[in-house]
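**Backbone description:**
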Amino acid sequence: SEERRELLRPLYHLLGDSVGYKYQTNDPDLLKLREIAWLPASNISQQWFKPTEIFPASFDLVGRYAPILAFREPTVQLRELLNMAFDPPVSAVFKHLLNCMDKRVEAKEIIYQFLARHAPAEQIEMLRNRSSIWIKNYFWRPKQVFFYSKQIADLFRHRRGYIDGNLPLDIRTFFGKLGIREQPHPWDDSL
């Protein structure tokens, strides 16, 4: 319940502030916290989770496909003590993107940033052939999207999607693997 969660919050914060200073990350009494379900999720209210089962991610990244820690981001020392993962499972992020695509709701940029770093080749290939790129209230097939240039935008106008070409290299590379291009193909891209 919300009441229990709020009773636990100060204890979690105290633990987070004290591990590495007052308590060591190998304290045998505190290591027992790894084995019990005591952490609440902000997106799943009927259940408590072990530290290895919950993630300090945002709802925009995983939706309802992974439990999201209801408390503040854990410190590095607290993560080490509890053996918490840094990232949610790739499968949860991928399922959330597929759900956004099916429901035609916005897929936030954080999803693409995460998948750029973690998506296996099979998932990339699956997205290549589907309307998977969210641009201005619409999902586009990657082959219908170009890295923005005024010349291409003037040529195709609203018939294609455009994304900023000044992206970090990992995200730009990921979009390239999906099939987003710099230039139209002379035979495949009709007006």
In short: The chain has a mean pLDDT of 90. The two ends are 57 Å apart (CA to CA). The beta strands are 39-40, 48-49, 133-134, 139-140, 145-147, 161-163.
